[in-house]
């Protein structure tokens, strides 16, 4: 999770700098929402690891299915040669 922002301090800094209270309220709300929507580097690395694991599993599953289809085709070809 992203690092929390001290919104009360941010509001105080803005109003002390002469920003009207209503504008300071709006800016702090926007900053808070952006912070809530952001992710940390560790979040991204965890997601990357999870995606790599899923890709690895999908590759394995596809390989198994491809070989299964190949064996089925070979079996059908052998069966048709025996019948024909």
Give structural notes.
With 84 residues, this protein is mainly α. It folds into 2 domains: 1-38, no CATH class; 41-84. The protein has 3 helices and no strands. Helix 1 packs antiparallel against helix 2 (21-37). The model has no long low-confidence stretch (mean pLDDT 89).
Q: How are the SSEs ordered, and which strands pair?
A:
Elements: H1 7-16, H2 21-37, H3 41-83
Summarize the entry for a quick read.
The chain is mainly alpha-helical and 84 residues long.
- Uncertain segments are none
The protein's oligomeric status is: single chain
The beta-strand count equals: 0
Separation of the first and last Cα atoms: 66 Å
Classify the helix fraction into a percent range.
over 70%
Number of contiguous helices: 3
Strand content: under 5%
Elements, N to C (H/E):
HHH
Cα gyration radius (Å): 29 Å
Notable features of this structure?
84 residues, mainly alpha, 2 domains, 3 helices, 83% helix, rod-shaped
